[in-house]
Design brief:
The protein is mostly helical and 102 residues long. The chain has four helices and no strands. The chain is globular. It starts with 13 loop residues before the first helix and ends in a 10-residue tail after the last helix.
Length: 102
């Protein structure tokens, strides 16, 4: 049995697509660095080093959009794209986990 088909991505400019991709990649890295989550310091260090590069790519995507006259972020459209690309799960690791204190 095949998995359910994902909804199609909304129409995005190439710069918007790069913005979404780099944003999710940065969120993945931030989730690996999150000090409230278990993990090792070396993995966090590697993620932090990669985050510097990813932040520059995110900045470059936004700068390209601005230069092209794309001065507005269309939140509804970009949120749909984030959801199709599993953004809810990927960004959930960035927030604090539930408090386990009884």
């Amino acid at each position: 049995m095949l998995p359910p088909e994902l909804p199609p991505l909304p129409a995005l400019t190439r710069a918007e697509g790069e913005l979404i991709d780099h944003y999710l990649e940065a969120a993945d890295l931030l989730g690996r660095i999150n000090p409230a989550r278990p993990g090792d310091t070396y993995g966090g260090l590697r993620a932090a080093q990669a985050l510097v590069r990813k932040a520059a790519e995110l900045r470059d995507a936004l700068a390209l959009m601005h230069r092209r006259g794309e001065t507005e972020l269309h939140g509804d459209t970009l949120a749909r794209a984030l959801r199709v690309l599993d953004g809810e799960r990927r960004t959930a690791r960035v927030v604090l986990p539930p408090d386990c204190v009884g």
